Structure formats: C-alpha cells, structure tokens
Amino acid sequence: MQKHSLRKTLFANRFFACGLLSAAFLCLFLSGCSKQREWGVLSVVPDSVSTKNAKQTAVYYVLIQTHEPIFRQSDGQNYTSQILKQWHRSVDYTEYSFCPDTTLKFNNKARLTLRSFYEHVVSITRKYTPEVLIGENGSCVVVKFKSSRKGYLGYLTSYSNAPTIDTGGGIEDGLGQFSVKSLTADKLVLERKTPISNGYNKVVIYEYKGKTDPRLQSRDIADFNMVNSGDIPEWVKKEYVPFVNVELTVGSLVLNIPDRELRLRVYNCLNVAELRKAFFPGPTEFGDIGNVLPLGVPGARAGKPRQVCDGKRMRRSETGEILFANWRRDNYAEMAEFAKKIRKETGIPLTVVNWEPAKLVARLHKPNRPYSLVPIIMNTMRPELSDFLFYTIKDIGYLDFEPREIAANYKRLLLEDNPEKKEALAKEIIKEFEEEGLVLPLYQNKKVLWYPREIINLNVGKGFLEFPVVSELRC
C-alpha cells in the first residue's frame, strides 16, 4: 500500500495538521457532522443480519457496525479487545484466559454474562478444534489446548465468531455500538445504542438501483464506495476526499456444474476479460490475477488464469442450459450479448438469469442452488488463507456438491499454525480448483474510495476490507 502525505487544512480560522500517515489511516477535518447525524450508504440490502453470513460483503458491512469480535488485529501481530477486561496466553500458546466485561449489553433486554460468554467460547472453539478443555476460573474463561495453537487469536478476530444473540426475524444483536432498528427489502436502519454529539447516530443502507438511482444525487449519502466505480457521481469527486487503495479483494466465478467434463469446458472457454467487461460495464480498475488469492497474500500468482479452450463446439443435446446468476442491474444488455457470443463460438448453452441481489444471497448457501455459474466477491478483514478458499465447502460454500479432497485439505488448513504448511495446503486447494474447473479467477480490485470531508479520524486500510467502523467516526 502507498503512503499519503495529507494536506494541512484551514477551516474557521483554526489550523489542523495531519502528518505523514500510512495508507491505513486517513485524517480529514471539517467542523461538525452532517445535521442528520446519519451515515447513508448505497449498497445491497441483505435479507438478514447474522454472523453465519459474515463472509457476504453486504452482511459484513452491517456486522462491523452491530457486532464486536473477541479480538481486533491492528496489524500482523498485535491483538486488542473491546469486550475483555483482561486476557493472557501462555508462552507456548496452549492456554488462554479471557475475562469478559459483563457491563456490556447486546440490547436493553440482554447483557453479556460470564455464563453466556463461556457458552459462546465453547461453541466457536470446538469448531476450531475438538481437542480442547474449556472452563471458568473466577470471572474468566480458560481455554486449554493439547498442543500449541498460535492461530487461535486470529480465529477469534473473525466476525463469524463474534458474540451474538438471535432476536428473531433473521436479525442478530451483537456487542457493537449499533443495533438493527428496521429491515425491509429496500432499506436497513441501524441506530446507535447510546447517542453521541460528535458522531453519526444512525446508519441507513439503501438498496442501490443502478446508475439511474436518484440517490446518487443525494447529499444524505456518505458512503458511495459499494457501487461500481464508474457510477460514482461527479459531485462526489468534487466534494468528497479520495483515497486510492489497492484492495486485497478478488472476484471469481464459481462453477456449480456437477459434470466434470462440462465444467472444465465452461471453465476453459469463458474469456475472463470479456466476461469482466460485460458483467461490469463502464469504467473499472481491475487487475489480472492468476489464482483465487489476491496479490499480496502468500501463494498468490500474477497474470491470468490458465485456460485452454479446444475450440470445439458443443452440441445442444450434450447438456441442458448453463444458468448464469446475474446480480447486477446495469448490465442486462451486455450480459445478454456475452451469452449470445459464447453460444455462437463454443456451443455452450449459456443463459443469463437476472436476480434481485438480496433474493440471490438468500439462496447462495442452500441446496438446489438456482444457478450453474455465479460471480462471487471474496474478501476478509484478516490475512488468513482459509478466508479465500471456502468456495466449495459444504454449508458455507456455493456448490451443490463437495469435492472431498478439498474439504479434507481445508479442514487441515483451519487447524494448521505453521505458515509454510498452511501455504502448501492452500496451494493444494487452489490446484484442485484449477484442475477440476471449480473456481475461475476474474480480477483483483483497485479503486478510489470517497469519504466526506467532515470526518476527522477515518480509519481505512487496516484490514483486507476498506469499510469504516461508523461508531468510531468523529467530526
């Protein structure tokens, strides 16, 4: 990541200087938050808010406002906690002690108790490894492993493992500063549990309707960064402050086609550059990647994916329709033309099915998925290889079948602490992706992020995702 030297800003006869900062920190100044004290976002509105779906980008954006993981990882080594009064680990990484802050509340009816925290730690740790002993010692929970578990703290930084309670209707409350006030198909409203005077007390996520959406012209929207970069309105580029960032985020195409021969033909004969251009019409800032890992992560490969199309045309009788799940609204003509070209050149009976994003998201992890092909954006807040490799894993992946060898290697990857062994396992999984034609890498994202000038302490770039923690913003 690059470094940014931020300009000194003079406003209302007061002088503020933000020194040389890393790209992980953007410091801006203007007097006072917006009158509405509302952080408006254009994005996909998820149909539920659950830690089970933390890997979905739209859900993740909400969870970082409503939930708090047991640990945050500020860099590659240092861990801090917002929900523990104190904690420690043994030198050999076999024993951990966590003492929760029992003054914290999920909502007005439920607070964090030692018992509820103990039950939560038991639940998530036994998914990490069954070889563990967990008990209570005074006001703390003690976790003892049979062997060294250096990766355990990193595991606890995941929002999938954040303390949570089910409040019904597909909504969970966490220990974050916000909770869900209302959720409809077009709007999700979060409210701060304890209002403050110098920050945002409400987050409103609006369903993005495409480049003709009238909210593109609304000054009530603070965050336009979830829409296609080509759709960012000109007024935002004049009134907001840009932050250029190469994101450790990848887009890939998942092939939910049980027949191996057919799957490999589709994998090898879809032109990545043409598909990218059709799926994301307009200006883009994508870079090529050779496998499903973003450049900057161990095991990533530069260049384009390896594809070999034999040029033979398929006969219509050889297969049924290949259904492409299109969750964008601004590319119908382009995707229809792409499918027509593929059918003409290869005989692959590609059919594009246009979906409302929220409705498709609701089907992604359920059996009998309504697609053969689906583009997936993969990203994570922690530099953990497993977070980029779960495409084909039962219950959390996107296939109606589970390759056994990949599943076994993925399980070993989750339990491995040695970096070299983890990378070797990741390479085995990626090799299987390629040889079996399961996941086709499309791009790595590079984009300009835009944020209101009024924010004085915007932190982005600390993790793999560039999403702001709205509760921490001050203006």
Description:
With 475 residues, the chain is an alpha+beta fold. It has 2 domains: 38-243 and 448-472, Periplasmic binding protein-like II (D-Maltodextrin-Binding Protein, domain 2, 3-Layer(aba) Sandwich), CATH 3.40.190; 245-446, Dipeptide-binding Protein, Domain 3 (Dipeptide-binding Protein, domain 3). It is built from 10 helices and 23 strands. The chain has helices spanning 57-66, 114-128, 152-155, 234-239, 260-269, 272-279, 332-346, 357-361, 404-415, 419-436, and strands spanning 3-5, 9-11, 14-16, 20-22, 38-43, 72-73, 79-80, 84-89, 95-100, 132-137, 140-145, 165-168, 171-173, 178-183, 187-192, 202-207, 221-223, 240-255, 286-287, 322-326, 350-354, 373-378, 439-452. It has a 5-stranded mixed beta sheet with strand order 14-15-16-5-17, with helices on one face. The chain has a 4-stranded antiparallel beta sheet with strand order 8-9-11-10, covered by helices on one side. It has a 4-stranded antiparallel beta sheet with strand order 19-23-18-22. Helix 9 packs antiparallel against helix 10. The chain starts with a strand and ends in a 23-residue tail after the last strand. Residues 1-32 have low confidence and may be disordered.
Q: What is the alpha-carbon Rg in Å?
A: 23 Å
Counted beta strands: 23
How would you characterize the largest beta sheet? 5 strands, mixed
Beta-strand level of the residues, as a percent range?
25-35%
Mean pLDDT: 87
Total tally of structural domains: 2
CATH fold group of the largest domain: D-Maltodextrin-Binding Protein, domain 2
> How do the strands line up in the largest sheet?
14-15-16-5-17
The percentage helix is: 10-25%
Question: What's the architecture of the largest domain in CATH terms?
Answer: 3-Layer(aba) Sandwich
Supply the CATH class of the largest domain.
Answer: Alpha Beta
Q: What oligomeric state best describes the polypeptide chains here?
A: single chain
